[in-house]
Every structure is written in structure tokens, then in C-alpha cells.
Design a protein that fits this description.
about 270 residues; alpha+beta; five-stranded mixed sheet; four-stranded antiparallel sheet; 9 strands; about 25% strand
């Protein structure tokens, strides 16, 4: 069942640009020819905030240094509209949309076949990564809905959407085994090229292999491994997986703190109105 986005507006509070001043102007996207080599194991600065949208039961915003911005909203549990819904557990519905202005260069025509296919693939990947983290057995004959909106694509968009969607579900009070944390990697061309954590848009465009790992860090359980490519031996893929898991473990404390801050803000607002 398609989700209705007409009532989903922007967050009531916006983040000032000064949040990236300490990161050395990470919000600016350098030209490809001027980009300096970076540490392939370095993580891009991450900003995460939960509880932004009052019209959604749960919401989260994730921004990566370099320009990737994702806004997610979550609803549920609601009674499943399908008459043949399974009684053994609930259903998780995921949607991924890309804003027309999200990327640089030529824009996709809204509603084009290429855009719809790309969004369907991203939504399926999002659901694959999130389902192991949600206790669907606790919601029989019910459905949970997650909608991710890519506001700006600066690379590693799917990984950022996985983390934001998990935060939104947790902010909505959905029972979960753990937060799903996403981390992307890519391998540039060249026989001796090393895998890079959280690649930018230009790095992804030139890559010969890509990988997105979703992890439940508290359980040390991989929920999804997505990607593909060519020219890499099996040992290189195993090395990339280990590097991605390490990146997920390093991102996990930031996401947990954003969720805890949202809970404290909600408790303070409740105490004020009481």
C-alpha cells in the first residue's frame, strides 16, 4: 500500500551551518581534480538527530560530511489492510524517495521509469537491512511503515538511509533487537586500490565495486550485505566486509546518543506540560 507523503513536512527545527565549521567546511563539495587523497579507513563526520517531525510517530535526520542528507519518518503499528495478512508477525513496509534536486548534474524527470526502478531497488534493500532488527513477531496482523527521503546525495546514501530509518523506528517506540547501522564502501579502479569507507559521490561514480553493510552492533549480527562489482578476489571482499563492520561499530555510539537525547527532550517536554 503506497504511503501518503502530503502531510510530511520538514522538521520544525533546522540545524545551523556552523555545526560543520569544526569539520573544516565538510559541507562544501570540492572539485574532483582538487580533492586531496584521504585515509581509506577514515569515517566522514556524522550528524544524527531523532524526533524531528511532530506529524510522524517517529523520525530521524542523518547527515554525512560531504553533503549526504536523509530524512526518515516511521509510522505504526497499524492494522494491516490486506485481508490475507499473516498471523505469525507484522509486515515492514519501506519506501525510498529521491528528491529531484538531490544530486548534481542533470536531474531525473519525476516519475520516470529509471527513477522508479532505482527507488524500488533502494526500498527493497532498506527493508532487507531493517527486518532482522525489528521484532515483527510482537505485531501480529499489523504493519509498520518507514519512508526515507534523500535530500542530497553526497555518496553513501543507502547506508545513511539505513541508519536514519532504524533511528526513526526506535523513536516511534517500535520494539527492536538493536539499531541497524549502515556503512558503505567502494573500491576505485586499479589492481592495488584499497577499499574506502563512506565514499563520496565522485568516488562512488568511479568505483568498480561497491558494498553496503548493515550491522546490529549490540548483537554483533550482520543484517544485510548489499552491493557488487568486478575485479576483486574473494579475499578482497572479505577484507571489505571486515572494514565495513568496523565502521558500523564506530558509528553506533553516535546513533545511540542521538536517540538518548531525543528521549530526554521528550521527557522534558512531558514534564513541562504536566
Amino acid at each position: 500500500m503506497p504511503l501518503d507523503h502530503r502531510r510530511v513536512r520538514g522538521p520544525e527545527e533546522s540545524q545551523p551551518p556552523e555545526v560543520w565549521a569544526a569539520a573544516g567546511g565538510a559541507g562544501e563539495v570540492p572539485e574532483e581534480e582538487d580533492a586531496a587523497p584521504r585515509d581509506p579507513c577514515a569515517l566522514r563526520p556524522l550528524f544524527a538527530r531523532a524526533g524531528l517531525l511532530s506529524q510522524a510517530e517517529g523520525s530521524a535526520y542523518v547527515e554525512l560530511g560531504g553533503g549526504t542528507k536523509v530524512l526518515c519518518a516511521a509510522w505504526g503499528p497499524r492494522e494491516a489492510a490486506e485481508p490475507g495478512a499473516a498471523a505469525g508477525g507484522g509486515r515492514l513496509l519501506c519506501e525510498f524517495r529521491r528528491a529531484p534536486f538531490a544530486g548534481r548534474g542533470a536531474r531525473w524527470r519525476p516519475g520516470s521509469a529509471a527513477e522508479r526502478e532505482a527507488e524500488r531497488e533502494a526500498a527493497a534493500a532498506l527493508r532487507e537491512a531493517l527486518e532482522p532488527a525489528v521484532r515483527l513477531a510482537r505485531y501480529p496482523r499489523a504493519r509498520l511503515a518507514v519512508s526515507a527521503l534523500l535530500l542530497q546525495d553526497g555518496g553513501s546514501a543507502l547506508a545513511a538511509a539505513i541508519s536514519a530509518a532504524a533511528l526513526a523506528l526506535a523513536d516511534a517506540g517500535v520494539e527492536m533487537y538493536d539499531l541497524a547501522v549502515g556503512c558503505a564502501l567502494c573500491r576505485p579502479p586499479g589492481p592495488a586500490a584499497a577499499w574506502m569507507l563512506q565514499p563520496g559521490e565522485a568516488e562512488e561514480r568511479c568505483a568498480v565495486a561497491r558494498l553496503t553493510v548493515a550491522l546490529l552492533p549490540a548483537l554483533n549480527q550482520v543484517s544485510a550485505v548489499l552491493g557488487g562489482g568486478q575485479g576483486s578476489p574473494p579475499d578482497a571482499w572479505a577484507q571489505a566486509l571486515r572494514l565495513g563492520l568496523d565502521g558500523c561499530h564506530r558509528l553506533y555510539p553516535v546513533l545511540r546518543q542521538s536517540l538518548l537525547r531525543a528521549a530526554r527532550r521528550r521527557d522534558a517536554a512531558t514534564a513541562t506540560t504536566a
